[in-house]
Amino acid sequence: MTSVLDTPRARKTGRDPRRRLVVIGNGMAGARTVEEILARGGADQFSITMFGDEPYGNYNRIMLSHVLSGEESDADIFLNSLPWYRDNGIDLHAGVRVERIDRFTKHVFSSDGRVTPYDTLIIATGSRSHMPPMDGLHTPAGSVKPGVFGFRTIDDTRKMVAHAKEDHHRRAVVIGGGLLGLEAAYGLRSHGIEVEVIHSGGHLMSAQMGPDGGAVLRRSVEALGIGVHTGSRTTAVLGTDRVTGVRLRDKPDISCDMVVVAAGIRPNVDLAVLSGLPVERAIVVDDQLRVQDEDDIYAVGECVQHRGEVYGLVAPLWEQAVVLANHVTGADTSAAYLGSRTATKLKVAGVEVASMGLHGPELDTDEHIVFSEPSRGVFKSIVVRDNKMVGATLLGDSRKVAYLTQAFDRGLPLPEERLSLMFDLGTPGDDVGVAELDDDAQVCNCNGVSKKALAGAVRGGCTTVAGAMDATRAGKGCGSCKLLVQQVVEWAAGGAVEEDPAASYYVPGIPLDKPALMAEIRKRGLRSVSQVFQALGPGSAEDAKSKMGLASLLKMMLADQYIDERDARFINDRVHANIQRDGTFSVVPQMKGGVTSVQQLRRIADVAEKHKVPLIKLTGGQRIDLLGIRKEDLPQVWADLDMPSGYAYGKSFRTVKTCVGQDFCRYGTGDSTKLGIDIESRFQGLESPAKLKLAVSGCPRNCAESLVKDVGVVAVEGGRWEIYVGGAAGAHIRKGDLLATVDSPEEVQVLTGRFMQYYRERANWLERTYAFVPRVGIEHLRAVIVEDAEGRAAGLDAAMQASVDGYVDPWRERDDPLTPGQFRTSLPLTVLPQVPVR
Amino acid sequence: MSGMMSGMGSVRSHNLGPADQIPPGEGRAFAVNGKQVAVFRLRDGSLRAVSAVCPHRGGPLADGTIDQQVVICPLHQHAFDLLSGCSTTGTEPLATYRVSLDGEQNLVLETGAV
Ligand code: SRM
Ligand SMILES: Cc1cc2nc3c(=O)[nH]c(=O)nc-3n(C[C@H](O)[C@H](O)[C@H](O)COP(=O)(O)OP(=O)(O)OC[C@H]3O[C@@H](n4cnc5c(N)ncnc54)[C@H](O)[C@@H]3O)c2cc1C
Ligand code: SF4
Ligand code: FES
């Protein structure tokens, strides 16, 4: 507090006639309120200064759950980036904390020593993670013990991800089995960490649902491999200088490498208390969001208490921001905030949970409708009072969520047949509901998008659901409103929306699903991608996003009858290498089954030396990658290598990982190396809807990780082989399903080929087997592939054989480029490579 | 390959050589006057020219996938309208250039003030 940079006196002499608006807190409420103020012409009335404790622009905090699980990148969740503030003339002090408000002289004092005057002040300081009292949370020096995390900010999330990725970190304990705790647990699980959730309540999400729903939820959560301890309290964090475990009140200690505390939030009110503002559970505001008994100070978001309520969700703060903006700008001085009804949704992939209002009946006259099917993880409970819905809990089936949320929010009258609240009996109520919704009704609660805004986007030309979603951000938060978004878009377009391309089409630019598309291609004898667009594209129009998928499909269907148009391929498939961040490419020669030889190694070494390859790396697929090769050098590199392509770039059959197996390993029960090499020799280069990665292990110790491969083979005692399909361990983790156990390597090859052909014919574009197998079901696959119940086996085998016979090593194109300038540089003035040289 | 130069005022024309060095539906990059330009030959034969470097993170746009309207950058799939240069996916726009064919089927690119 040393310098007074901007005093009230300076203002009198200064030229800016506008009032000074200062906003403390640059989170979801603070930034949204400023947006609303700007939308009401606020820039003419106010010079705006914002303080934010976090050193960034404003981001979508609720997406942190997706960042933790890896479903979103942290760069993609920013709502207002730093340039946005500059472009809107806002003076943002990012990374600066406000420490005190002098409400008499109207100044705020911040951590950088600055003293800033205001005419109007808005407090939007949000909440922080609550650390319940327990021993060992802190080091003796007083800082939070390394390995203990809250879950509130982007920095928390980044640190958790970094910690979870350190390879000696294997186990985590999450304290708190509410929404945030379960999202944290799921996120960590996605990094392969073993997670235990400790919850003091009697059942999970006890604030949002009753015990019956909680029991069903527990099964679904446990099915994700997450341990659950309910009715259990953590009394201490163990470990001296870093976390080694936790102590529970009534159960044995749990050892772990990290602890995430998700045991509730507390409003950030220290600043208000210190400055003499009225604080009970949070800062007390009236229906105008004005701080009680203050003329020029407002508060908004999670730091406020309104009519006794403190909210912990975004939907209320969108409504508050509108009311507040109406008042400070004078746009609508009669605007009043009367409180919000809140609904929550769990953002854990595969576990659908939505909850709103009451968990169960409270009055004798309340109706309670319950449906429970624990084996499928489905539970639904609806509470009705005076023909209005006053509460609902929905697990495992979210089809009715959008409708019910609106019925709850708006107090819509309910259909007499209550069953139709839970199941689609062709509810007539849906369409009527959309038309009747107020213009201001919020459709997407996460991003605060109203019916009016969505309808506006549709009239502005976004006549597809995906287009309107992109334009408004509706449906891009928790996703629970997607159905309603679709209905609103359809309504706004007055039936002019064709079906949403993204939904069932094989590729976005051709309005047909895969079976229909394949049938049309066959019927019309189409042989190239441009012929398909000509014949089947709306207005015969090409679509860049669809080209690659069509090229793959045609090649699979037509083998050597396919007319190969190179522009339909992605760059990787035009030059048979993987494009890198600087526009150079990587070269991965085939190394079947991960087995190499002195000659191969010597040749690779010579090539790397001759071409000054920046990085030589062993890949996760058991071969050698030469990275940072210039496009124009690719043909020469291949010629010098004189090895076939390893296909590390395509949507195609990639590798077969193997373990050493029987010949050397003292446990081996089958020759996994030979079988792996044979499989790779047979199916090399095969194009498919998405990548195919295989493995063969010589015994159930599974050193080649066969259980997490698209097709994984394991030798078992007695000379038999197990075949697993649909496994994954990349962006998603899934253990493969056992397709069959067979007696010989030959049978393995037949069933592997048959499965892959069926997948090639049936899977959607870019649908990996980890999605395809559960979609069609392993029983169905067994019936078709192993038992030949549909009599299709011979056909599949023949189609696969034709593809195998059609194999040509693409690196032969080195001698005879297929198109002019196929290997010409695309960044003529950039000196490549720019990747670091090791 | 900055080609021959002619023209008046501040608009300059550059002969980039024969059009058939660009296969139909693809793009190729040229260095023109110290600038990197990606020229595309659409499947209907028409030509488009935009700056060759993606404003997102420097991706090589001549390696992109195109249709009649847009080019999609190969690195992170941002898309750009080939005529206006505007991004349809919310990133910065591209510079655009006029490009045409001369009597010998050579590509002629215009740079400078328009
Ligand atoms: C080179 C390699 C990393 C390494 O240095 O080891 C690699 C590199 C890339 N992987 Fe991978 N993956 C590599 C093994 C893996 C593995 C492990 C494996 O194959 O055993 C996995 C998990 C297994 C799986 O796929 O189920 C893996 C899961 C992914 C994924 C997530 C796929 C998914 O749906 O879960 C992607 C993204 C995608 O496909 O969209 C990806 C994408 C990529 C891309 C192609 C990124 C891209 O889209 O351009 C990377 C290219 C880098 C480059 O500049 O060349 N990579 N990637 C590995 C090549 C193996 C090989 O010899 O062929
Ligand atoms: C992981 C996670 C998932 C969530 N999921 C959902 C969900 O699915 N649905 C939902 O509705 N809600 C969800 N929420 C809650 C939602 O994010 C909050 O309701 C919302 O962010 C509240 O906004 P706010 O502006 O009041 O507070 P915040 O967004 O926390 O913003 C407050 C800002 O003020 C800053 N600040 C505090 N004190 C000071 C000071 N003295 N000086 C300067 N700056 C200060 C803070 O650093 C912070 O940046 C989730 C929250 C988390 C953490
Ligand atoms: S190689 Fe794979 S894991 Fe590594 S950065 Fe690239 S895509 Fe991500
Ligand atoms: S560099 Fe072009 S999209 Fe990222």
Please give a structural write-up.
- The complex is a heterodimer of chains A (838) and B (114).
- Chain A is an alpha/beta fold and 838 residues long.
- Chain A has 6 domains: 8-128 and 267-329, FAD/NAD(P)-binding domain, CATH 3.50.50.60; 148-263, 3-Layer(bba) Sandwich (FAD/NAD(P)-binding domain), CATH 3.50.50; 341-423, FAD/NAD-linked reductase, C-terminal dimerisation domain (Enolase-like, domain 1); 427-496, BFD-like [2Fe-2S]-binding domain (Arc Repressor Mutant, subunit A); 504-569, no CATH class; 652-808, Sulfite Reductase Hemoprotein, domain 1 (2-Layer Sandwich).
- Chain A is built from 28 helices and 40 strands.
- Chain A starts with 7 loop residues before the first helix and ends in a 33-residue tail after the last helix.
- Chain B has a single domain, classed as Rieske Iron-sulfur Protein.
- Chain B starts with a strand and ends with a strand.
- Chain B is globular.
- In chain B, 0% of the residues lie in helices and 41% in strands.
- By secondary structure, chain B is an all-beta fold.
- A 7-stranded antiparallel β-sheet of chain B has the order 1-2-10-9-5-4-3, with no helix packed on it. Chain B has a 3-stranded antiparallel β-sheet with strand order 6-7-8, with no helix packed on it.
- The structure holds siroheme (SRM), flavin-adenine dinucleotide, iron/sulfur cluster (SF4) and FE2/S2 (inorganic) cluster (FES).
- FE2/S2 (inorganic) cluster is lined by residues 54, 56-59, 73, 75-76, 78 of chain B.
